[in-house]
Amino acid sequence: MKKILLGAFLFCLTIQVSAQEYNKWSLDLGGGAHEIINPLSPGYETGPLSLGQASLGVRYMVNEKFGLRLDLGYNEFKEGKNSLPFRSNSYRVNIQGVLNAGSLLKFSSWTKKFNLLFHGGMGLSSLKTIAPLDNGNGEKIINLMFGFTPQFKLSNRVSLFLDASAILHDKQNFTFDGAPYTSERRIVANIFNTSIGVNISLGKNKANADFIKNEEVFVNGELEEIKKRLDFAENEIANLMVQKAKEGNINKEAIIIELDNRYVKKGEVVPSKYANVVTNSNVDFIRKLLNSGYMNVYFDLNKKIVQKGSLNSVNYLIQFMKDNRNVSALLIGYADETGEERQNQTLSENRAKGIFDILVSAGINPSRLSYAGGGEDKSVTKKARQFARKVTFKIN
What is the CATH number of domain 278-396? Predict the structure, then answer.
């Protein structure tokens, strides 16, 4: 039990550290078409989705879910096919909040390439009409802007995006063709922009905030419960050491066995079961630990031989499957991102096959086992690549 708790705590710390190591800054450049909704004088129109708009954005993600964006934009308007001639342009700057909907909705559970952002904010626009009526230096208008941005990941640093945004002007005094706007001045849906562009992640880290993988360590408060039990176990160790010292009998192995027998949830103890392995926990709790990655098998760089420190995990699974003959296991091998991706795929399969062979040699019926190569585990950072070289268990 002590080994499980310590392993769980270390794994949680690894995920917590790796989750912080991603690029928070990014730059995006886009351009495309637009349409004026209103106001225009009678006889004037732009036509549907006329070309002539561009934007530059600088974004900072506070975390993988929320961020801020500085938006600089330009629109150039001219008459459509059946319109009287006119020319005008608009410059804008605004600050927007950004919501990473892909992270909130856990897109990473079903795709590695697609993501979705929502954005909205306010700023200042400058609208200048050139023809048929020139309004001089133009007018300054408060703008509101909101929209959504689907993304497609090309690489760890570059992604393509589409964007659909509405720009609203507050109390615009002139129409886009330069005539005085005599209607009641209010916030109106003036411009609709559609863009295609590229987003570039800035920073030294490989991952970026938009496509950071969602990692759920334990659900329904079980992670917090494990941390509490770990703290309690440390106190138990200290108390046992004092007690054994007074008795003149300090035996580390005996202390660990005593902890394993003592430190379990109520109702989990099954006499003599797993007494010399790891734990006395019940089947459901063990299955959760195995499926959550707390008893992985780890490997050295470019090796398919199990690390000596991971043999206990293999022995634990063997014992568990012998004592519960109705369960089956899927073994999934992984490699880190060092080397060629095709070679790492093969290495991950060989690692899973190696554990499969060990279990079969130990007497587990091969019909209860299956294995697969998961390729490169890209969820960990460069500093934690030793945790990517592994085989995980999925117990059914």
Answer: 3.30.1330.60
Answer whether 337's CB lies under 8 Å from 388's CB.
yes
**For residues 270 and 317, which has the higher predicted lDDT (pLDDT)?**
317
| 314 has pLDDT over 80 | yes
**Structure confidence at residue 364 (pLDDT):** 93
Q: Is the model's pTM score more than 0.85?
A: no
Q: Across the strands, what pairs with 127?
A: 90, 139
Cis-peptide, bond into residue 39, ω within 30° of zero: yes
Residue 14 has pLDDT above 50, yes or no: no
Check for a shared fold between 21-211 and 278-396. no
Distance of CA 319 to CAs 151, 273, 316, 373, Å? 46, 9, 5, 24
Buried b (16+ CB within 10 A) or exposed e, 48-71: eebeebbbebebebeebbebebeb
Which residues have a Cβ under 8 Å from the Cβ of 116 and sit 6 or more positions away?
Answer: 101, 102, 105, 107, 148, 149, 150, 151
- The pLDDT, as a whole number, for residue 80 is 86
Q: 251: which 2 tokens?
A: 């035996």
Q: CA–CA separation, 54 vs 195, rounded Å? A: 8
Q: Which residues pair with 168 in a beta bridge?
A: 144, 189
Q: What is the mean predicted confidence (pLDDT) over 147-151?
A: 97
56 or 174, which is more confident?
Answer: 56
Does residue 279 register a pLDDT over 60? no
* Per-residue buried b or exposed e for 372-396, using 16+ beta carbons within 10 Å of the residue's own CB: ebbbbbbbbbeebeebbbbbbbebe
Domain boundaries, given as residue ranges, for the chain: 21-211, 216-263, 278-396
Q: Does domain 21-211 have CATH number 1.10.10.200?
A: no
**Which one, of 213, 209, 258, 178, lies nearest residue 24 by Cα?**
209
Which pLDDT band, with edges at 50, 70 and 90, does 133 fall under? confident
132: cis peptide before it, omega within 30°? yes
Beginning with the edge strand found earlier in the chain, give each strand of the sheet holding 297-298 in spatial order: 297-298, 390-395, 329-335, 369-376
> Cα–Cα distances in Å, from 176 out to 40, 125, 166?
6, 13, 16
What's the CA gap between 102 and 359, in Å, rounded? Answer: 39
